[in-house]
Amino acid sequence: MVKVYEINGVTPVVHPTAYVHPSAVLIGDVIVGPRCYVGPLAALRGDFGRLVLEKGANLQDTCVMHGFPGCDTVVEQDGHIGHGAVLHGCRIGRNALVGMNSVIMDNAVVGADSIVAAMSFVRAGMEIPPRSLAVGSPAKVMRALSDEEIVWKTGGTGQYQELAVRSMRTMRETEALTAPEPDRKRIEWDSALPLHLHKNASA
């Protein structure tokens, strides 16, 4: 069950097809759209500005969304926010990816189909063009993305959309076992490779 917090008479909205982990914190003006996934310990503080996850977006473990009064922080449709990222008063475009532990600052815009590499810092007001790779601290646009890289990103987001469904169907709180069972089963999954290995495999 999703636990949310009202503030100043404003209550978070979670679409029935979205999955929000019970340890995530949603406060105030938060809107989580259809087929979204919000991971464990994510914090969405809509106590100043509005926070929006559009259809099919994911916000993974320990991510933070927040913003200044009067601004919207938005992850557009199929946006993909990696573990530990911080979004503050920014806009992440459709089908864009923000890598793990990156920080996207106020009024920054990450264009559609773009990738921000892990541990990057996107300064306030920066605009990353569509289909671009941005890297570093501060982030710089390095090059355009290939069709193959965008297909890889889209596939990864699809896995999180499936995870939202799987989590709603099968995740439950339980007691830990004291030892592994004989012939312990594994979670079955189609192969998914990091981008650098994906490129090598398809070369």
UniProtKB/TrEMBL annotation:
Taken from the record, one Pfam family name reads Hexapep
Identify the domain of life.
Bacteria
Q: What is this protein called?
A: Phenylacetic acid degradation protein PaaY
